[in-house]
């Protein structure tokens, strides 16, 4: 009797231990899965920010082969292609992303960005038109402004630039673009103001400094503005001033500015030297 009763008890104990072990294994497996998800997310972020762009493309392409329906991986590939300046491939990648079930309005904006980079302004405009009106983001309005500029719709461009500036804490790039838009329209004084605003926002933005020189010289103002610049930048800006003066027929002023640029540059300024020789020989 004792042996008969004991055997089921032992069996029950064994089954209980087996169930506990199985439950523990499942818990550990789930925990490892969670850790893998966190690790993968961190790795994806690294690939999108600090990794070499082409390495990031290879990483996401491999990940997509294993998980072709994951939108986050398709999106990561598209962003990496933009970073690596493979614009045609990026357009194709973003076109795939926007067709996925969990695509967002931001994905359509990024597709429009890729299309503008590839020069397909017409399709970019249609893509932006498909974005819901209430999706009001800095990038969306910056691109809308660029499309309006390309269409020479100046009032729309001004409205979009102004809206974009209000949606970012780093407006220097937009101010520079807006200033260049004014420069192409011949509104040199307003362009000068916008370039100056851009430089105040970001003192390292050399493009805005050079554009400021173009706006001033278009008004036949051939003096350097009071802005932050190192010695090499000063020489380069003097060179821009000189070429602008020569283009407008102010040859004596241009020649003097070229000599000043050559004397100012901390190294040999070959480009300015060639410009001066060409001017003197002519």
TrEMBL record:
PROSITE patterns: PROKAR_LIPOPROTEIN, TPR. Gene3D superfamilies: Tetratricopeptide repeat domain. TPR repeats lie at residues 37-70. Keywords: Signal, TPR repeat. It comes from the Bacteria. Residues 1-21 form the signal peptide. InterPro entries: TPR-like_helical_dom_sf, TPR_rpt. The keyword Amino-acid biosynthesis does not apply. This is Tetratricopeptide repeat protein.
């Amino acid at each position: 009797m004792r042996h008969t009763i004991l055997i089921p008890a032992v069996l029950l104990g064994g089954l209980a231990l087996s169930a506990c072990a199985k439950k523990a294994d499942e818990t550990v497996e789930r925990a490892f899965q969670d850790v893998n998800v966190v690790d993968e997310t961190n790795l994806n972020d690294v690939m999108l920010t600090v990794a070499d762009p082409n390495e990031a493309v290879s990483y996401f392409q491999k990940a997509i082969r294993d998980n072709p329906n994951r939108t986050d991986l398709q999106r990561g590939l598209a962003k990496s292609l933009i970073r690596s300046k493979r614009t045609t491939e990026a357009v194709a990648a973003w076109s795939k992303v926007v067709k996925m079930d969990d695509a967002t309005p931001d994905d359509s904006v990024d597709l429009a960005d890729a299309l503008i980079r590839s020069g397909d302004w017409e399709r970019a405009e249609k893509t932006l038109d498909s974005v819901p009106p209430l999706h009001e983001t800095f990038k969306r309005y910056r691109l809308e402004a660029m499309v309006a500029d390309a269409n020479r719709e100046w009032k729309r461009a001004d409205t979009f630039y102004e809206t974009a500036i209000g949606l970012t804490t780093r407006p220097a790039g937009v101010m520079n673009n807006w200033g260049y838009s004014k420069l192409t329209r011949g509104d040199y004084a307003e362009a000068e103001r916008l370039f100056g605003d851009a430089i105040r926002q970001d003192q390292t933005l050399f493009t805005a400094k050079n554009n400021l020189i173009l706006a001033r010289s278009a008004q036949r103002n051939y003096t350097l503005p009071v802005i932050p610049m190192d010695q090499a930048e000063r020489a380069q800006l003097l060179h821009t001033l000189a070429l602008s003066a020569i283009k407008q027929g102010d040859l004596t002023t241009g020649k003097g500015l070229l000599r000043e640029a050559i004397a100012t540059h901390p190294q040999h300024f070959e480009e300015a030297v060639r410009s001066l020789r060409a001017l003197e020989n002519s």
